[in-house]
Design brief:
- By secondary structure, this protein is mainly α.
- It contains 17 helices and six strands.
- The strands form three sheets. Strands 1-6 form a two-stranded antiparallel ribbon. Strands 2-5 form a two-stranded parallel ribbon. The protein has a two-stranded antiparallel ribbon with strand order 3-4.
- A hairpin with a 2-residue loop joins strand 3 and strand 4.
- It is globular, with a radius of gyration of 26 Å.
């Protein structure tokens, strides 16, 4: 007797008898749907962070962000130079273009039609809206669709809500926003006028951002254009502004302010170099006006936030090393988009190495600019995301979780502080400055003296340090000048 085994029909499962192909198709659909929902979860987290902070800013008694009070104060002075120059006759506006001018000028324009407090809030909310838009465009161009949500929340936590935002460094944040817009929209067909416009805007926004943009645009143009003289045409307008600025400083005899801060030894230098990346974390420890921490009685919250910052730095550090050292096997090309050609990719890789070298050699104090190296880390992260592929992008994806947790904790803490500022007179309990002052001009000794009233020495942000400016703005009083790094260069009191 011959037993003939009939062939099993294709697509029939041994156990269920149903079609395997159909089952695999259903599983694929389920996985795709799951990825979509996960992506939207990250999108919601990123947008929720921005919207929550914007709402807190809108209802807060004042936009308390460290240096922001001074910049809003100077914006109002610039507005009065147009409407009532006699009221601010003691202030001198530079007769030449000055970096750090774009943000105060925009605040001045808002102050022409709004009260200073409302103008400051509108500016910050528009800045946050611009960030969420540009970062979304960035992820759409340089990352796969399945990764866009998690990368967006990472960028919102570490770039849009960077330490510079909480410090009130609005000129740098505005310049960095323009820098991201340039990188996101650059291609081989960009015109000279388009590049030149970005150069002028970046110079007027912040000098450090402009210095970061110059090698970037040179490398990109060299890789995309056979006509090398185009670089001169594209950089000519901003180059003229640089020469005008330097000549104006020389002729007017302007003595730029220089911060008295230095590293006392090799140990402090190494700690500074390894510690600065911790600013990439999303957690901020806000201090009350008396110098104590909001988390003084909640030690576990502070520790949780500090842990998230360390995790973000560790994961992003591994990620950056793999990108620029090519530790991953195979080609490191980004397969999310064909918009980046091989020459442009090589240019970005050289630019990344330039940023790494500049960070390693950058001093703590560069002509009065504190921590210039720390301002190179965010562009470095952006370039790293452009160059990565899906095999190593998981390190950045894992970093998004602690970054988002830290940023959420910071936004919540800031909301609590603003609520207390609106219901309690916190400023009546402001810290009385010590007459002794810091023991030395060492950076670490100064920080120990500065944070003497709190048990925590790291991740601290003194958001109420210039709160008196808001009171002066309400009273239309303009007693002096704290910063001379913007368009207002001097102040002389009336006899």
């Amino acid at each position: 007797m011959v037993v003939v085994r009939m062939p099993k029909p294709a697509g029939v499962c041994r156990r269920s008898g149903t079609g395997c192909a159909r089952s695999e198709e259903d599983n694929g659909l389920i996985m795709n749907q799951f990825r979509i929902w996960v992506n939207w979860f990250w999108y919601g987290w990123a947008i929720g962070l921005v919207l929550s902070l914007a709402l807190i800013i809108a209802i807060a008694p004042a936009p308390y962000f460290h240096d922001f009070g001074e910049w809003l104060y100077q914006g109002k002075i610039l507005a009065l130079k147009i409407t009532d120059s006699a009221a601010v006759a003691g202030f001198t506006v530079a007769p030449y273009p000055v970096p750090n001018s774009l943000a105060p000028v925009l605040l001045a324009l808002l102050c022409l039609v709004l009260t200073p407090m409302v103008a400051g809030k509108v500016f910050l909310i528009l800045l946050l809206a611009g960030w969420i838009w540009i970062l979304w465009r960035f992820t759409c161009r340089f990352t796969l669709a399945e990764n866009r949500g998690v990368i967006l929340v990472l960028l919102v936590a570490v770039i849009a809500l960077a330490s510079f935002f909480w410090y009130g460094f609005i000129s740098y944040q505005l310049g960095l926003l323009l820098w991201f817009a340039f990188l996101t929209n650059f291609n081989e067909r960009c015109s000279n006028n388009w590049i030149a416009g970005f150069g002028v805007a970046l110079f007027m926004s912040h000098a450090m951002v402009f210095l970061t943009w110059v090698p970037l645009v040179v490398l990109l143009i060299l890789a995309s254009q056979p006509r090398q003289w185009r670089i001169l045409l594209a950089l000519a307008p901003s180059g003229v502004l640089v020469l005008w600025f330097m000549l104006g400083r020389r002729l007017t005899g302007f003595d730029p302010p220089v911060a008295d801060a230095r590293m006392s030894g090799i140990a402090e230098i190494l700690l500074y170099k390894f510690g600065s990346p911790l600013l990439l974390g999303g957690f901020r420890n806000f201090l009350l006006p008396d110098g104590t921490s909001l988390f003084e009685s909640q030690v576990w919250l502070y520790r949780l936030g500090a842990i998230t910052n360390f995790l973000v730095v560790a994961l992003l550090g591994v990620y950056i090393l793999q990108v620029f050292l090519k530790l991953n096997a195979g080609d490191n090309r980004n397969d999310a988009s064909n918009l980046i050609s091989a020459p442009l990719e090589q240019s970005l890789r050289w630019f990344g190495w330039t940023l790494i070298a500049a960070y390693l050699i950058a001093p703590y104090n560069f002509f009065g600019l504190i921590n210039p190296g720390g301002r190179l880390l965010l562009p470095l992260l952006a370039v790293g995301l452009v160059l990565a592929d899906r095999r190593i992008l998981r390190w950045a994806q894992w970093a998004a979780i602690p970054a988002a947790l830290g940023a959420t904790l910071s936004v919540a803490a800031y909301g609590i502080l603003m609520y207390r500022a609106g219901t309690e007179d916190l400023l009546t309990h402001a810290e009385i400055p010590s007459t002794a002052g810091p023991p030395s001009d060492s950076v670490f000794a100064f920080n120990d003296w500065l944070y003497r009233n709190t048990r925590y020495k790291y991740f601290n942000y003194r958001i109420f340090v210039l709160a008196e400016r808001f009171a002066q703005l309400r009273a239309s009083q303009f007693p002096g000048l704290a910063f001379r790094t913007g368009p207002i260069t001097d102040y002389h009191s009336r006899p």
